[in-house]
Specification:
5-stranded antiparallel sheet, 585 residues, 8-stranded parallel β-barrel, homodimer, Immunoglobulin-like
């Protein structure tokens, strides 16, 4: 027996479509909802809904779309899955390292099952959480996942609901937690039938992606419930350890209780009720500490947020890039401010925005509430060629970047392949079956970069299958017989050693922003990050130089270069583009 | 010598237009600003700006528009005004009574000078602040003032800058503070040249009035400075005691520092720097306590906000009206909740909005931060016929309404003429010189009320001069020789006595929300508001009834009816539709 329910407040008639058969749903007690029980239906039954005699439409809360986002929904009895890991909850964010990956390109096969085959690599690396880019069902075979429309289903080409659960179970078995990237601020352009069911969107506000999700207009209680229920569904039925809320800054919500707070309250209640550790991470570029401020202090109480400023400060420090949103960054001073204040823009002028931006972070907010990264899917993929930082940066500076990331007071996050400097790019790719939509995306991409001086033919075509294929990780780069294995394996060792050191020496992960300080010389281009009694000593210059320390240097714990001269322990001579973590006394 | 300055960041050339003469401004140090000094110009000089050789336009910060909003601006040397009142600052909001008035209809003449002639009436009444509806220059001769476009000028037909200052000076002389209603969320449809000067508006957001004021898009720092400077200008140069921020809920501002906070910080700094008392009041229907929460508690720190819920609860309690936004109100329970919690909708279902609304007010927030009213310009004027509550309510219930208002923990506000139950209506009137705009307003008004079943010809035409004239107060209603003076003078005495009692017995004005409690019987229709040892005893029923008290009734301090039977001091018999404030022991 299956009970089918759906919210369709404007419909005068709702039918359940089972093959050729249509069965009327009856209005439920809860306003706008419809329901019917079908004794013969159960796990595996395909169905759809018809509104006022219209064509069959997938269930807005469909758990499975076996034939894609336009086809019928399938009943999935979530109780039937044979979970194996007995101890599957408990990973806390403080002190952890996150690894962002995209199922479709993490492996050659692009499936959950293939990804399971690489989990030992992640466990060896020392990863605590994987953050899986969106898996909600979207139109086409491949894409980044931010065009999802079946928010309760799992993209079939990845392996569907069972594949995802096998993957989560396998992660848990290895002690790795799983965070899922969920997109609540907009829906994809194809297969979005929600608006036919009810006022999921509102013209009252608009967003870069069209009409805004209806969070504060009439009937928005059910829309908010749709999102909150969705979060609880993933966390509950899929045993996820947390969610990453995509573009949380794009929620337009004038209510006195913001949707971020509502989500955080619901998730915290689930965690408390079950004794689980659950983490909510928001992507937000508002530089508004309210997002991660506790509710006791009148914040939204989201557990962490992405810290783009840290990325920009670190990226431009290493690369010297100053175009676009890197304009205000690039100096050691900017990096030092970000390291000690979380936001660089905390009420300062943002040239990119043409206005003042942000407000200061209360130093009582722990640094782990800010996710720091040297690379992520956006920062690579939104470049014209999708080139990783390793494609152009010297091996020395690459190690400096990794060291500054993994000794920061923030929660460090790696992007898949970063740990070995993967030679494959990560490009923007789509697979819109609608020719017009596909053309619009391809042309939009060319136009966007054309504005910045790129020739059209230089820009990879998102719709071209090769663009996706190029973006797949090539794990043979780690094979001993690979022509260029050496640099890859050596960088992998560096990441592994840094993560191990971060774990062994808790002062490196200490999230107290007030306790971090940075000595530096902008002109000579060196810096020293003080972390307890440890010193992260960096020479950014292209020549060796003496780097003065506030205390005598003790033993070197880890170094990117073995030519460090410690003869004067108060001012070791660091080789060009090198970093070392040194004990001081 | 006058220095002319203007912000025109996109212009390549800016000219000062003095008669036939054009003088180029030079770029100033501050980005986007232009400046020029003209030795021969001074108080009284007419001028305009021309952008890139275009037509003359009024100064966005024009202090005077002698020939209307489309004409030249006039230099006003604000130092020259002969202020007379030496002690002009010091009125505090706590414990005060506000009186809202509209200069154009407060007197027959519709001028500041004529209004001065009525100030003794207000002083006698016991008013602490007048709140002047917007006086910023707008197109046409008369209107409510919410179509202002010359935000730094004073509407000429009211008496211009000098008239307004004479009025303020005269208020101060009588110990009355002056609050000004300022409109920062939109500009009027005619005479708005701001967009030619710079990006004052943004397409990123829209509002009911079109493109939103640019508070968070590129170049918005200067737009915010325009508003903040405007607030400081009125408060400083006009010696105003505070501002009322119109439709503050309509600000669309995603910045980490909200414009309300920025305004409040600037105003508080002015107050601290000068030792003055300055009050900022926001109109906000968000039911979000953040607005009036102190900045120490991470609120915006606005000093008070209008409390529409209190109006709705009181209005529908007295009238029984339940249409539109009164739907959820009307019960004594709803009134009691509002009286003790400030918001009725504090996370509860709002039928009118079709969604949950608001969040609870921390009981530590004093009640005076909520402005309560039985009537205001909107609540009267937005009715189809602009009829005051006194047009239909019984004299007894009218007195009940006034008593419940003036014994509430909120800051009470009266609307001009309310104190004597003025027989004149207050209708929506405009005077758009552009025929098309005028027609659109007239038709829009008819259409709006047509939807609610009103015949078109029943709706007063806003553009018709008689509509404005009908809305003027008729002070002869208070003349002894007037045919119906009795009821008016008697109601006036009631208001005066209530205000005097509120002042004499501070427990009536006590803003502690936690200390207010209400006993009531929804079916029998009586209620008792407990205020310290005082009891506000109300019989809403149309027949006498016994009203039980928690403590024995002592002497009656004030009563709307002299037939109250105190034989049983634990349960006095109250006449139909009556109220008394009683001492208890």
């Amino acid at each position: 027996m299956t009970r089918f329910t759906v919210w369709a407040p404007k419909a005068e008639r709702v039918d359940l479509v089972l093959g050729e058969e249509r069965t009327a749903l009856r209005p439920a007690l809860r306003g706008g909802w419809w329901t019917v029980e079908v004794p013969a239906a159960g796990d595996g039954t395909d169905y759809a809904f018809s509104l006022d005699g219209g064509p069959p439409r997938p269930d807005p809360r469909s758990r499975r779309q076996p034939d894609g986002v336009h086809g019928p929904s399938r009943v999935v009895d979530l109780e039937l899955f044979p979970w194996t890991c007995p101890q599957w909850s408990g990973r806390e964010l403080p002190g952890s390292v996150i690894y962002e990956l995209h199922i479709g390109t993490f492996t050659t096969e692009g499936t959950f099952d293939a990804a399971i085959g690489r989990l030992d690599h992640l466990a060896d690396l020392g990863v605590d959480f994987v953050e899986v880019m969106p898996v909600a069902a979207y139109s086409g075979r491949h894409g980044w996942g931010y065009d999802g429309v079946g928010l309760w289903a799992v993209h079939e080409p990845y392996g569907g609901p069972d594949g995802f659960r096998r993957f989560i179970d396998a992660c848990h078995t290895r002690g790795i937690g799983v965070l899922l990237d969920v997109v609540y601020n907009h829906l994809g352009p194809s297969g979005n039938y929600l608006a036919e069911f009810g006022p999921y969107f509102t013209d009252k506000h608009h967003t870069p992606w069209g009409a805004a999700v209806n969070l504060d207009d009439a009937d928005s209680d059910e829309v908010r419930a749709f999102l909150v229920d969705n979060a609880l569904y993933w966390l509950g039925e899929y045993r996820l350890d947390g969610l990453r809320l995509d573009a949380a800054h794009a929620f337009v919500d004038t209510r006195a209780v913001h949707i971020l707070e509502e989500l955080a309250v619901a998730v915290d209640e689930l965690a408390e009720g079950t004794g689980r550790q659950i983490t909510l991470i928001a992507e937000s570029d508002l530089n508004d500490p309210r997002v991660v401020t506790s509710r006791a202090d009148r914040g939204h109480g989201i557990h962490a947020q992405w810290n783009d400023d840290f990325h920009h400060a670190l990226h431009s420090l290493l690369t010297g890039e100053r175009q676009g949103y890197y304009t205000d960054f690039g100096s050691i001073a900017a990096f030092a401010k970000t390291l000690t204040n979380a936001y660089f823009h905390d009420g300062t002028w943002s040239t990119f925005r043409g206005r003042t931006h942000g407000r200061p972070v209360d130093q009582a907010i722990p640094g782990y509430r800010f996710v720091g990264f040297l690379q992520d899917h956006d920062q690579i993929g939104n470049r014209a060629l999708g080139d990783r930082i390793s494609a152009t940066l010297s091996p020395g500076l690459l190690r400096v970047g990794a060291a500054l990331l993994l000794t920061a007071p923030f929660t460090p996050m790696l992007f898949m392949g970063e740990e070995w400097g993967a030679a494959t790019p990560w490009q923007y790719f789509t697979d819109h079956p609608e020719p017009e939509l596909g053309r619009a995306v391809s042309e939009g991409r060319r136009r966007e970069f054309g504005r910045h001086g790129w020739a059209a033919q230089a820009i990879p075509d998102p719709q071209e299958p090769k663009t996706m294929e190029r973006s797949r990780l090539d794990w043979t780069e780690l094979d001993p017989q690979h022509q260029a294995t050496g640099p890859h394996r050596s960088l992998l060792e560096w990441y592994r050693a840094l993560i191990a050191l971060r774990r062994a020496r808790p002062e490196l992960a200490d999230p107290g922003l007030a306790d971090v300080s940075v000595d530096y010389d902008e002109v000579a281009r060196w810096l020293v990050v003080r972390r307890g009694s440890l010193r992260v000593v960096v020479n950014l210059a292209d020549h060796p130089q003496r780097v003065p320390l506030d205390r005598a240097a003790g033993p070197i714990l880890i170094a990117s270069d073995d030519r460090i001269d410690l003869n004067d322990p108060g001012a070791p001579v660091m080789p060009a583009e090198s970093v070392a973590v040194i004990e001081s006394a």
